[in-house]
Amino acid sequence: MNFRPLEQEDVKPLQRLFMESLSDLIHREQFEDADLLDEEVERLNTTVQDSFEDRTVQIFVVVSDDHIVGTAAILPPNDIITAHIDIETGVPEVGCMYVAPASQRQGVGHFLIANIRQQLMANGQSAFYLDAGFPTSQTYWEKRLGPPMMTIEHYWGPGAHHKIWRCSAIEKET
To answer: What pTM did the predictor assign?
Structure first.
């Protein structure tokens, strides 16, 4: 596997990864919202474009056998994070983290977060925020990062919580 910054020629394959990963996630979560997929993909595509124009947005990809199998971004904390916690200056969010469904449970996520942590340290950033609204994502991150610093109860509706973590860039996963 190779971890590297996003390049212009990666945009279309990355859009396919977003569609594939989000379609799979929404199907597994059994969400009924017909607009959710389009809204999330549009948000992610905007972030991709921002990465080419805004130095505070860095997107990285994991490539295996000449295919993008994972992605993550280092970016300013999103509106949910900034609305619910007092963010620390200089602490970014790690977001837009997706692994292709066919590549899940093969170490891509571990590889991705380990390399993102190294990149944060190279950037001089010793911590990061991460948030998750999908229950399967929350379960994954609780296993990897421990309990969240905040759970926003019923954020997405009855029983649908949103969770926020603050993590050290040098800390090992749990």
So the answer is: 0.90
